[in-house]
Write a structure and sequence with these properties.
Acts as a processive, ATP-dependent zinc metallopeptidase for both cytoplasmic and membrane proteins. Plays a role in the quality control of integral membrane proteins. With 269 residues, this protein is an alpha/beta fold. Helices cover 48% and strands 11% of the residues. The radius of gyration is 21 Å and the shape is globular. Bound molecules: adenosine-5'-triphosphate.
Length: 269
Amino acid sequence: KSTGKIHKTDQPQTTFDDIAGYKEVKEEIQEVVQFLRDPSRFRQAGAEVPKGMLMVGPPGTGKTLLAKAVAGEAGVPFISVTGSDFMEMFVGVGASRVRDLFKTARENAPSIIFIDELDSIGRKRGAGLGGGHDEREQTLNQLLGEIDGFEGSTGVVIMGATNRPDVLDPALTRPGRFDRQIVVPLPTLEERDQILRIHMRGKPIGADVDPNTIARGTPGMAGADLKNLVNEAALIAVRENSPEIRMQDFERARERQTIGRERSTLQLG
Ligand code: ATP
């Protein structure tokens, strides 16, 4: 679609309690929460808060969740857009969408702009291959211009997420733009344990289920995979008419995930 807005505005209820682990990340973004709660306090002190934060990490590690939690904790609107939605637009349309996005954010300030898949708008410029390329450059130039155009004290914070920081145009990460980088890595063993516990909340979990054992058997999994694992186990329990989700259901779910992954690798290879 080439008309209409592509950004969404909502008021997330997500808080830091919904996110397991990432203690340091939470501490780091706590300052942004304080700022959004009361921008005038920072203005009076002449303190500058970073305008843009870039969250970098593999898929499914909770970057979107973290950005939402900042909005939820601060009680401000969350205005989000996905970078790939800007692709394949007519010349000038992407740029006008970016303008729209920032306008909405200013009107709703204090607020958060969240750009997922920042790399799809923010790829390095310059190769000059014509056509769609020019359109992408215009969109990126508009984004850079909008970021430069507002003062830190406006009360708008931009958060971007990417798993490809290496392809970003260096102009994006210059001081005054996305100049704070927050690394969101795959969860550790202990964090996997905590993530599993969060997603088990409110579900009929059998007494034989040990999140720690499951965490040990799932190295390399991101939060999104763990959430999916709990859901798969619940589905298996339902199918087998079990009133509780048992350890064996988690084992089966784990096997299924592994098989699913092997299949998709086979298809790719
Ligand atoms: P992508 O890069 O693919 O957009 P992402 O890093 O933005 O992924 P999210 O979409 O935030 O990841 O995470 C997907 C889901 O995984 C979340 O909605 C949440 O349910 C779960 N999840 C991920 N990390 C955590 C965590 N640390 N604690 C609790 N749940 C988590």
